[in-house]
Amino acid sequence: MSNCRFLYHNGVVLEAPPVTTFLESHTGAYTTTRTINNGTSFLFWERHMKRLSSSIRILLKSNPELLFSSGSSPRFWMNQPVPGSSIYDRVNGSMSEALKSVVVKESERLYGEELAVTVLVTGNVEKLNRLDVGNNWDFLDVWLHIGAYSPLGPLGVGENAASLALVGRGRDVAAAKYSDWVRDLACGLLEFCCFFLNLGMVYDLGRLRKPLEKFRPPLTTELLLSNDGDHLLEGCITNFFVVCRRVKSSENLYGGSLSEFEVQTAPITDGVLAGVIRDLVIEVCLSEGIPYRERAPSWSERELWEEAFITRTIKVPVGSMEGLACNKPEEIQWKEKRFKERPGMITELIKVKLVTFITLRIIGFVLVF
Taking all residues of the chain, what is their mean pLDDT, rounded to a whole number? Predict the structure, then answer.
């Protein structure tokens, strides 16, 4: 696998730090995807661009300081619409230029490899202050971080189990994906692993991710969020699902052919990010008659949980733990719930259908060398 890594900005190829460092040093809205078919197209490019546009509009309207590196952005602009097509054209233009400038020149080194691409859009205060009325969206800078895609390991192998811990409250501006919150990421597709869910609430850490890290148990690979210590919202960089036994009747239930169970995940209105794979899982449930309900999974109802998984990929949980509320990591006392080590019936069905869906309906940005 190549160690190639590039950063492209305003027509210039720059030295690229690791993507974690890159996001830590820039404020803005971002999305991450990967190439498929030996690097010839991007996975779900249209969906990623739609979410990126949505994130930019949300930040402009509610929290411009999360888009601009300077807090002096003029407020008069924030209620003005930014056409999604303008953002799409701007990012696509930058991507085409980057591919010509960088990827084509390195085609021999990258031949046959998949790429991981992070698109970060930041607000430029200087451009904003000298806006032309006829071009009133041209205050955004596009950054492209391009590198070799690294799979997370063999699928479904116990020693590669993911471990989750619930350590803090939900995010501010959860509907937008922005760099001030997410400090590390990895792009993947349908990676089935096992995990423990470690549940321990810490209420005094605020709503940024870094302070949560000191509460991360050993070998834990993801941190879950909840506002009340019971209803699980999402992971820091994933969405969270459970498959649970149904109790008589359920409100807001969709599907119906597998009536004994239902898939649950927190609704967007509770304060979660609409992940691309999250949306696809819901689409699969609808098309396959798998009952699902947009309801935050409740830890107090964990005895009804039969399966669980997280998405940015899909990962199959082995178990979960609950920690007593505390202020110091050493004070946490864990309780445990275990799942089967392999994907359960419904998780496996979702996996198979999602792979088929992706194989047949990939719509992406096609790379031309």
Answer: 72
Q: Which of 178-192, 278-292, 347-361 has the highest mean pLDDT?
A: 278-292
In a domain, 368, yes or no: no
Is-contact 241 305, C-beta < 8 A?
no
Q: Is 365 among the domain residues?
A: no
Classify residue 369 by burial, with Cβ atoms within 10 Å: 0-12, 13-18, 19+. exposed
Q: Which domain holds residue 327?
A: 158-360
State whether 173 and 38 are in the same domain: no
What value does the CA radius of gyration of the chain take, rounded to a whole number of Å? 21
One domain, residues 114 and 215: no
The predicted structure's pLDDT at residue 335: 57
> Phi and psi (nearest 5°) for 144?
-125, 120
Top-ranked range on mean pLDDT: pick from 56-65, 287-296, 337-346: 287-296
Average pLDDT over residues 338-363: 74
pTM: 0.77
Residue 322 has pLDDT above 90, yes or no: no
How far is the CA of 99 from the CAs of 11, 22, 89, 103, 112, in angstroms?
A: 11, 19, 15, 5, 15
In whole angstroms, give the CA distance from residue 34 to residue 312: 12
Percent of the chain residues past pLDDT 70, beyond the cut: 60
